[in-house]
Automatic annotation (TrEMBL):
UniProt protein name: Lipase-like protein
InterPro entries: DUF620
Positions of the UniProt region annotated as Disordered: 67-95
Length: 482
């Protein structure tokens, strides 16, 4: 009897040791540390890889998941903490596969059974629109962070240009200084996003947030890698779908579930998401030829406005067939108090001419981004949160035929690291199955008339149909014409 009581007492101790409170306290730091776990640790086995982690405190935000004062271990093409063992454990899966593995573990609010009922098809349609337009947009024109910034010049220089140069110097100094930013060879950032198609407007009515704001929103994560010069890779996973995009410095490519892998039209351009408070040096280079056009208040803060227009050669290179990009303008609002970029707006206008000789249809895409929560990461000021509002405005053809779609995105930055050891140009090689030729960015526009004006490109076009049923007349179904 005494032996049984002793056994029960021991079991009680084990159960108490496995209580949720203790398990949670023990598992917070090690699980985070697996994100940048070097692959060479993999050979020791998964069972004791966590046990070998040091007890030093880990940096959980705006750092690189390493004990205080220690440097990152070499990545060996990229960590893969959750990959199965294969023989001797020496096969290298590659950095890209690790990124995909990290994103596939990101939770999604769209997978709950309550949300999977009748609205699932419409949410998939909205998700395709959100990822197509907001997933990986590019900057208006080509710039390189390796190009020197222009020197401040007053003599024989227009006041708008010299003022812009002065504002950029203040921005560079406030972001950490040119010397520190020039020492950055590569960078890594990971964050969370939340997207929603909030409004659809026609000439006669406005449809608000189909399905309700809470249930219609799609949550996900993204990972961004950058390396000088002009190399970057981003992967965004939202609602069970993923968008990949990257540049090896010579070619920009993109992969979506509905278009596959394809090259982007026009010159190599930076990722717009990197300009949203993650890459101050490229941002300053982007506005190097801008003009100061005035002042305005943004969220109660006085700001200078810089304006940049894409040159005609770039616009022509980005156009294709009946779709012509007429203009692309970028505005940046820099705080007069801090010198940092707090608001960015870019708008481009596309004209699509009908092959039958009818009236042209115009699409204006406007993205307004508000940057917030600037905090230093290794001496460089990084915006750790923000939101974007995207408006797609279609007009032309006949009077009172315009439509307007409004989408919103909110993001937070969870991790940032610079000069990651082991990252090389091999990590930015385009996929082997990339499609020959390039696809214009207008293929993501939700235009039903595209199936009539560009019959030869039906496989590239996201078309829009309206159901004839009255109960669903306020909804839009997005599909790919094949």
């Amino acid at each position: 009897m005494e032996k049984k009581q002793g056994l029960f007492s021991a079991l009680e101790e084990v159960v108490r040791g496995l209580s949720p409170a203790r398990s949670r306290a023990k598992s917070q730091s090690p699980s985070a540390a697996l994100l940048l776990l070097p692959r060479r640790w993999k050979g020791h086995g998964r069972d004791h890889s966590l046990a070998q982690l040091p007890d030093a405190p880990l940096i959980a935000r705006s750092g690189s998941f390493r004990p205080g004062g220690e440097a990152l271990a070499p990545l060996m093409e990229g960590p893969d903490g959750d990959a199965p063992e294969d023989g001797g454990g020496t096969r290298r899966e590659g950095w890209g596969r690790w990124v995909r593995g990290q994103l596939s573990r990101a939770p999604s609010v769209t997978s709950s059974p309550a949300n999977a009922a009748g609205s699932s098809s419409f949410r998939r349609s909205d998700l395709r629109l959100l990822l197509g337009v907001m997933g990986a947009p590019l900057a208006p024109m080509h710039v390189s962070s390796a190009d020197p910034l222009p020197h401040l010049s007053i003599k024989e220089t227009p006041i708008e240009t010299s003022s812009a140069q002065y504002i950029l110097q203040q921005y560079t100094a406030a972001s950490g200084g040119l010397k520190l930013q020039s020492s950055i060879r590569n960078a890594y950032a990971m964050g969370k996003v939340r997207m929603v198609a909030s409004e659809f407007e026609t000439a006669t009515k406005v449809v608000k947030n189909r399905g309700g704001s809470a249930r219609a929103a799609e949550s996900g994560s993204f990972v961004l890698w950058q390396m000088a010069p002009d190399m970057w890779y981003v992967e965004l996973a939202v609602g069970g779908s993923k968008v990949h995009a990257g540049s090896n410095g010579q070619l920009v490519w993109r992969h979506t579930p509905w278009l596959g892998v394809h090259a982007a039209k026009g010159p190599v351009r930076p990722l717009r998401r990197a300009l949203q408070g993650l890459d101050p040096l490229t941002t300053a280079s982007m506005f190097a030829n801008a003009r100061c056009i005035g002042e305005k208040k943004v969220n109660g803060e006085d700001c200078f406005i810089l304006k940049l227009c894409a040159d005609p050669q770039t616009l022509k290179a980005r156009s294709e067939g009946p779709a012509e990009i007429i203009r692309h303008v970028l505005f940046g609002c820099f705080s007069q108090r801090t010198g940092l970029l707090v608001h960015m707006e870019d708008s481009h206008l596309t004209r699509i001419q009908s092959n039958a000789g009818g009236d042209a249809v115009y699409w204006e895409t406007t993205i307004n981004s508000f940057l917030d929560d600037y905090r230093p990461v290794e001496g460089i000021m990084i915006a750790h949160s923000g939101r974007s509002v995207v408006t797609l405005f279609r007009f032309g053809e006949v009077a009172m035929s315009h439509t307007k779609t409004r989408m919103e995105e909110a993001w937070t930055i969870e991790e940032v690291a610079f000069n990651v050891p082991g990252l090389s140009a091999d990590c930015f090689i385009p996929p082997a199955d990339i499609r020959r030729g390039s696809v214009s960015e207008t293929c993501e526009l939700p235009q039903g008339e595209r199936s009539k004006t560009s019959i030869g490109n039906r496989a590239k076009v996201a078309a829009v149909d309206k159901p004839h049923a009255t109960a669903a007349s306020d909804r839009i179904i997005w599909r790919v014409e094949v």
